[in-house]
Amino acid sequence: MVVYQETYHRETYAELHTHGPKKDFDWRLECPVRAYDAGFRRIGIGALFGLWHWREEAPALAAHLEYLQKRCWKAQITVSLPRLRPAAGDFEPRHPLEDREFVQLVCALRICFPQTGIVLSTREAPKFRDGVIPWGDDDQRGEPHGARRIYGGGTGGAAPDGEGTGGAAGGGEAGGGGGAVFDFRCAAGGGNGERVAAAGI
Questions:
Q1: Which residues contact 178 (CB under 8 A, 6 or more apart)?
Q2: Beta strands in the chain (DSSP E)
Q3: How far apart are CA 114 and CA 157, in angstroms?
Q4: CB 80 within 8 A of CB 116
Q5: Residue 108's Cα: distance from chain center in Å?
Q6: d(Cα 185, Cα 66) in Å, to the nearest integer?
Q7: Which of 23, 26, 96, 110 has its CB surrounded by the most CB atoms within 10 Å?
């Protein structure tokens, strides 16, 4: 089950999600925990870089990941790093994540989370993407549906065959038990969220 928070900045989230269940920031933030409590054991999260300042998104994403590793400790968890790019029609991201900064983010996450699978979009330029992959780890493979993974060095980070990327765009929420709302603003005060922020980001 893969579900992106898209942005951890509440004001930007509220601006972009105006209708439906996805409008509720905390409901979406809790989705991975609900999925875990419902029996899912392969969980992916991510932020869509470009919606808000990446130096604030990155520590929040890291804090969320660290929380899930503790709360959903039986699950294999991956983190995705899609980013908005300039597109036809003169579209420009509000807060672009440039290539150099993107590489810095990948390296910081790999250092702080050596067992976690990192997912790169196949929408990245092939030369750039293929150049970044070895910096994550040496266990690599292509993935369908616009994703390519960098796996961690141990057994905990290698996602089994059959894990799809579906469910992110549509929400992918699962029913089941709830839990306390995760507040990344508290969690980011220590642990790997703080270390990612301190890695020159």
A1: 30, 33, 34, 37
A2: 42-46, 76-80, 117-120, 140-143, 147-150
A3: 8
A4: no
A5: 13
A6: 13
A7: 110
In angstroms, the CA 161 to CA 42 distance is: 11
136, 150 Cβ separation under 8 angstroms: yes
Domain residue ranges in the chain: 10-198
Residue 43, token pair as written in the block: 């969980």
- Angle (nearest 5°) at CA 5 between 169 and 20: 60
Task: Look up tokens 């899930």; give the residue.
Answer: 68
Q: What is the mean pLDDT of each run of 10 residues along the chain (201 residues)?
A: 94 94 94 97 96 96 97 95 88 92 94 91 88 63 44 36 33 36 42 55 49
Degrees to nearest 5, angle at CA 59 with 63 and 110 = 85
The dihedrals phi and psi of 119, each to the nearest 5 degrees, come to -105, 125
Tokens at 128, concatenated: 């750039």
> Rounded distance, CA 183 to CA 6, Å?
15
Question: Under 8 Å CB-to-CB from 174, ≥6 apart: which residues?
Answer: 1, 31, 34, 35, 38, 40
Instruction: For the chain, state the CA radius of gyration.
Output: 16
Residue in this structure with the two tokens 């270390």, named with its chain if needed: 195
The helix (run of H) or strand (run of E) holding residue 64 is helix 54-71
Is 93 exposed, middle or buried (CB count within 10 Å of its CB: 0-12, 13-18, 19+)?
middle
Beta bridge mates, 6: 47
